[in-house]
Amino acid sequence: MQDYIKPNKKVNYGLDLNKVVVGQEIVSHFSITADESIHSLWSGFMPTSSYTENSREFAGILGFHELYLPYGFLLNLTLSLGVENFAHSSLLHLEIRNALYLNPAFAGDTLTCEITIKSVEPTSNNRYSIIISEHVLSNQKGEPIFSLERVTLFPFIDGCGDENAKGNSNLKNHHFKEKILARVRGIELENKIKDFEPGDLMLHPFVRPVGKSENLYWATYFKNTHPIHYNYQRYKPGEIVVSGGIVVSMVLSIASREFRQLLSPEIVRAFHVVPVVAEDRIGAFSFVKEVAQIMPGFEEITLLTFGVRNVDTEMDLGDIAFPVELFSDLKRPSDVERVLEDKCPSLTGIICCVAEWKILRKVD
Fold first, then answer.
1. Which of 155, 173, 191 is the last residue of a domain?
2. Alpha helix stretches (DSSP H) within 222-302
3. Cα angle vertex 200, ends 47, 364, to 5°?
4. pLDDT at res. 191
5. Nearest Cα residue to 278 out of 242, 228, 250, 227
6. Which of 11, 32, 212, 264 has fewest C-beta within 10 Å?
7. Do the beta carbons of residue 133 and residue 116 sit within 8 Å?
8. How far apart are CA 84 and CA 88, in angstroms?
9. How far is Cα 91 from Cα 80, in angstroms, rounded to an integer?
């Protein structure tokens, strides 16, 4: 009879790096039913300003039987449902691209996610691999609800080649946005600021922390199982990282207050510069990149919104002269850090993420 027993079973989570194939489809291990209580909790967590996020009456005017689930909530669900059997074994989340709300989702819907590996390429030093994947969130009827592309850094994957999978081009549509656009024509909406022009720069006054309990709650709810988000035994309190999807959603929610009424947001691309840890205070400032009149009475504004941490945005950054290069086509965190070190060192380590996104508004 043995006197001692050693652990002899272990489950490995994340992408199996020995079986990666371009075009590979991965179905999430989870299906989540989102009820009305979770919608309310999200609204108490994220600063929500527009009628589309807050008013059941407005949803009814648009022809929906109830409020549809918020864009940021679905963004996080789409990202997080791919953690356990995909991103858990990754090294770094590099970028989000083309995050589209495809069909309305409502409280009571059961949602799951399917991931398709579109490409696998080595980094320039051949030490790591970059995977571009397509993530599609669907409801219980099999209808696509939300889609995005994710760029993720993994350990080096050998023998996969650099061919590309086509992905599902049918999902790159704006049918939901067009439906909202058609239904809101006869509705009067008042925006906080009516006139924006390219080159406008705005400091957003709202600053909000992501608390430890909030971070743990949403990581648990979204099944974001990477230990860096919740394991206080392995990581010190100042090392527990807030997930990238939560950070981006918080930054855009903070920015939305001044641009409302937002009818349809769309992230073109977003990346992180420095990590945000639990209890960091998050703020934002936005640069207007383009204003397009898409039809009489409607405009689409393209914004570069920068998330900042641990500063009172309006008070601390009011006298800062921002370098023009910061609002050019910066591709990666090192580009942002280079501009800050050369032209504006006081902002070094403060900017946590950069998001290029579009917002649809009704105007007079």
1. 173
2. 244-259
3. 75
4. 86
5. 242
6. 11
7. yes
8. 5
9. 15
Cβ burial, residue 222 (10 Å; 0-12/13-18/19+): buried
Range of the domain at 86: 25-34+69-173
For residue 215, what is the domain's CATH number?
3.10.129.10
Question: Cα torsion at 193, 199, 205, 209 (round to 10°)?
Answer: 130
For residues 265-292, average pLDDT: 97
Q: Is the pLDDT of residue 154 over 90?
A: yes
Q: Are residues 93 and 142 in the same domain?
A: yes
CA separation (Å) from 11 to 14, 21, 112, 232, 316? Answer: 10, 21, 22, 21, 48
CB atoms within 10 A of CB 328: 11
CB 283 within 8 A of CB 308: yes
What amino acid is encoded at 135 in this protein? H
pLDDT of residue 324: 95
**Helix H or strand E segment including 335:** helix 333-343
pLDDT at 111: 97
Q: Which of 232, 195, 224, 259 is nearest to 48 (CA)?
A: 259
Band (pLDDT 50/70/90 cuts) for residue 160 is low
